[in-house]
Amino acid sequence: MSDATLPNPTLLADRALIRVSGEDVRGFLQGLVTQDMNNVRPGAPLWAGLLSPQGKALFDFILWDAEGAFLLDCEAEQRDALIRRLSIYRLRRPIAIEPVEGGVHWSPTPGRGDPDPRLAELGWRWLGEAMGDAAIGWLEHRLRLGVTEGVGELGQDKTLWLECNAAELNGVSFAKGCYVGQENTARMNWRAKINRRLVVAPLGDPGDRTRATYPELGLMVEHRRVEAMGDALIPDWLATATASNT
């Protein structure tokens, strides 16, 4: 069955794909991203970040194994910027970093694809043709589960990766070798002290902590201190982590 004939709309129209391929492409990405590339396998995509040297989020994406290459499932609006950033590190290595056609699809119920690597409750995700109607309900579903993503919510060079709840959402490996931003990220983990977190909260008056607002959903994303979470939505996956830091 083609994506165009699926019974329910599934396309995440705000996502796009980048293909990274070439000699030792796994090793190339291993030295850049927050995930251990040895764990990215067919049927096992992983969420990862590309950070600044200070350990702050620049881009986030989901990595997919593509038979000797890797596909990055990223924000469509940030695809060109992410390609440029990755290309800085290529130097003279025979690595190709290029946009490719295709779509990212989502369903809240099983039947196709792989569980979202961040949180099983997010649903199922797969790659296919960029066809069909846009998925209904994805944004609210994600936010109600407290999961933030993208430059608009994470910020760009504004938020430390662990403040993006990367450890709780399986977005970082503490067992791999060096990558860009690894030193600060590892230090924060070792100290077990994360003072601020990105959280979803009921819509209120925007302030200097506000990253994104969604009036149509009555929600917003804020960067709050853990001792001042206020009315933030704290799902079970985040409750233990925030309690230990207060």
TrEMBL record:
<keyword id="KW-0809">Transit peptide</keyword>
<dbReference type="InterPro" id="IPR045179">
    <property type="entry name" value="YgfZ/GcvT"/>
</dbReference>
<dbReference type="InterPro" id="IPR017703">
    <property type="entry name" value="YgfZ/GCV_T_CS"/>
</dbReference>
<dbReference type="GO" id="GO:0016226">
    <property type="term" value="P:iron-sulfur cluster assembly"/>
</dbReference>
<dbReference type="InterPro" id="IPR027266">
    <property type="entry name" value="TrmE/GcvT-like"/>
</dbReference>
<protein>
    <submittedName>
        <fullName>Folate-binding protein YgfZ</fullName>
    </submittedName>
</protein>
